[in-house]
Amino acid sequence: MQLHISPSLRHVTVFPGKGVREFIKVKVGSRRLSYRMLFYSLLFFTFLLRFIFVMTAVDSIDGETKCSTIGCLGKKIGPKILGRRIDSYNVPEVIYQVLEEPISKDELQGRNDIPQTLDEFMAEIKNSNLDARTFAIKLREMVTLLEQRTRTAKIQEYLYRHVASSSIPKQLHCLALRLANEHSNNAAARLQLPSAELVPALVDNSYFHFVLASDNVLAASVVATSLVKNSLRPHKVVLHIITDRKTYYPMQAWFSLHPLSPAIIEVKALHHFDWFTKGKVPVLEAMEKDQKVRSQFRGGSSAIVANATEKPRVIAAKLQALSPKYNSVMNHIRIHLPELFPSLNKIVFLDDDIVVQTDLSPLWEIDMNGKVNGAVETCRGEDKFVMSKKLKSYLNFSHPLISNNFDPNECAWAYGMNIFDLEAWRKTNISATYHHWVEQNLKSDLSLWQLGTLPPGLIAFHGHVQVIDPFWHMLGLGYQENTTYVDAESAGVIHFNGRAKPWLDIAFPELRPLWSKYINFSDKFIKGCHIRAS
């Protein structure tokens, strides 16, 4: 840097040392005006100090161990003069370069010099005089190691939850066996359901008809008990329970020995329906193909967990797709409701993981506006985690068959508590559309969607859905615990959709009482199988 003062002291010029012809001129008065000259001199030194601080900042950013004379001068005397530190808020470029360099898992194996916690990392860098590159390398190693451990732990959690949710708890297995034994030994457990004089009510449209498809006796008992106990007119309630062949005897025994009078309960197995044969029901053939495709395409849970490139959430979704319930006929049966109940005009379909907390008869007063399916939308609500589902949440819009036919931002709706206008349904091709898309998904190796019956349901019922008030169906109690007990208690129907079913040990303990309060834990079958409230 060069400093030039004119002989008359009227001009002072500062030239930067790097040859840039930028300069600062300070116009000074005559020599006689000494006070004015003193003022301008101070003004000049102020500009000079600012220049020193700029040079210091440049040296700091460059991260050099050596600095220019003026830069070092600024670092040494600047803070003392102005009483402040000079900090650089810009991250050195070398840190970005190091952090962007890939690091393999093998590089970190067997290493015991990598800090395990933030405290260890801070202690190490405080005790060492590290340059920016070494600092970035140690930071990258620590974060990568912790990220790998977090990923492994998360995947293990998903795997354990998958195993827990896919298995039958020994208490429920015990209950089914005891009831089956009771059915064979006790005539009171083999009653016709309903009794002969009540059979005409099964096709009487003046009653409130509910349908429940389940192979879980305990879950079905909670749905039935909560439905009847909260009904203002239980004598007008008809509950049609559909189950499979293996669960029919235990289910019949339970409701024979635990009547819910004056409500009417019908228990019927699929093989009791004459039309329900493989040749007449496309969904059965589709389910067999689906199971074969999944076993080949997925490679089982071991192959899914072993994938080191996919994110834990993707792995969780694939594990969930292996759940037996997604290939269960109980899950697909709702698409055949018009054939199952040819004499009924309107029904309410209930999943077996719901709890009824209010009288549901007002559902028959809802104007369906010619629509088939009355359902709660799942893209609007206070809970942004649960109520944020759109079509793109379930369907693969990277596939042209999906992207060319549907809007990804269209609101989705929920199964679990649905009003079905069977009269309007019979005038549509909803069932045929459902089977068509299930077949298309199988042909594309499950590339249209991965999970369950809701995606093809969203397609089949597209344009046939009447939105109802969210009060009638609160979702998400089986996969998140953000919902409080008080909020859940205020809903008409609560749904434990997700892995954490209330009859499993992995259920959320603060929400489980909403379900378990409808179980009589003094019952001999419940006590004998060690089924407890918590």
TrEMBL record:
TM region positions: 37-58
Record's keyword terms, sorted: Cell wall biogenesis/degradation, Glycosyltransferase, Golgi apparatus, Membrane, Transferase, Transmembrane, Transmembrane helix
Enzyme Commission number(s) from the entry: 2.4.1.-
Alphabetized GO MF terms: polygalacturonate 4-alpha-galacturonosyltransferase activity
Cellular compartments annotated: Golgi apparatus membrane
GO biological process entries: cell wall organization; pectin biosynthetic process
InterPro entries given in the database record: GAUT (IPR029993), Glyco_trans_8 (IPR002495), Nucleotide-diphossugar_trans (IPR029044)
Any single Gene Ontology cellular-component annotation: Golgi membrane
Pathway info: Glycan metabolism; pectin biosynthesis
Membrane topology: Single-pass type II membrane protein
Catalytic EC class: transferase
Family affiliation: Belongs to the glycosyltransferase 8 family.
Protein name per UniProt: Hexosyltransferase
Source organism of this protein record: Cannabis sativa
Lineage: Eukaryota, Viridiplantae, Streptophyta, Embryophyta, Tracheophyta
